[in-house]
Amino acid sequence: MPADYAYRQFPHSGIKFQTGMIDISGGFQTSPTEVITFLVIVGTITISLIVTQILNRREMAKRAKRRASARSAPVLRSRSVRTQPILPPKNQSVLDRLAWFLKNPNRITIVMQDPEKLVHLARKGLQEGVVQEKEVRDLFRYLRMDPEPLFSRSLLTSTISPGSEVSVSTVDLSVATGVFVSNRQEGLLLRIDRGGNRFRTGTPLEIVCYSADGMHQFHSTLLRKKGKHLLVSHSRHVRHAQRRRHRRHEIEIPIRLGFPGFRSAPLETVSLDMSIGGAAVRNPKKRLVLGALVECTLDMGSAPPLVLTGTVVRLSRRKTRAHISFSAMNDKTRHRLFRRLIQGR
Known about the structure:
Blueprint: E1 5-9, E2 16-22, H1 32-72, H2 89-98, H3 108-111, H4 115-128, H5 133-142, E3 165-169, E4 175-183, E5 188-195, E6 204-211, E7 214-226, E8 229-232, E9 239-242, E10 254-258, E11 267-274, E12 278-282, E13 293-298, E14 306-316, E15 321-326, H6 331-343
Antiparallel strand pairs: 1-2, 3-4, 3-6, 4-5, 5-8, 6-7, 7-8, 7-9, 10-11, 10-13, 11-12, 12-15, 13-14, 14-15
Helix pairs in contact: 2-5
């Protein structure tokens, strides 16, 4: 009988019973075969888990790639499909520039379905100098549209009176000033008194004429330069900005008022109306007094601020409104103010 089993003998019966108690003080005895089998099972399970993870990651990568390709692919709906002409690069460039005037430039393809709207954008682009007349004519010709409505309500350069003061600038704001001498068949003859040294034949120009009839703006091209005289091309897209000399525009422009020679903090205000000669502004806390010399910094939007000096010449509306007369300004500053008043924003 094994020694690790305990027995108990009941008295007077002569019978011995096994109590079931096991002596484990010596530990478990495991054979090498059992150890190898255990390790094989554990290794098989581990390898299976690793392979499953690899396959799952590959499947997830394939699904992500399919979703990405589905998002990039155009969604075609029968009700939104429009047959749009494929434009040559030059015409497409003109169309893209006209789209700048839209709140949502992506709607330019819809505008192509509306000739009246496209004419309106083209006229605006010609007035702002964003596109040239020849480019627009080529675009309309390709789209088989009549370009004549573009010129039905436009002012011509022939309506500008000779003798008008002119301000001429290039895209990089190289500015010249002078006088509008005469209207010729081949173009407008200007006499430049200041600036214009960098002007070259073929340079696109923005011209502002300032006369008793009002302020006119148009875009042109330099045809010929001889001494102080410039011959520029005619334009059929002239913007008439004002009717009489020094007419004030009702325009609200944020202005910071400084006081040269004093250490007081600048005042923030807004214009009520303005011209190239001066402006009426709100008098913040009635701080502006008659005869005060002020430095006006005008907010020009995305362009650098415009700094002008002036004098308070009058107070009105119980001193809540101050009228400022601007001091003499250089040609570049004057032209920037012209453009700001014309834009009206």
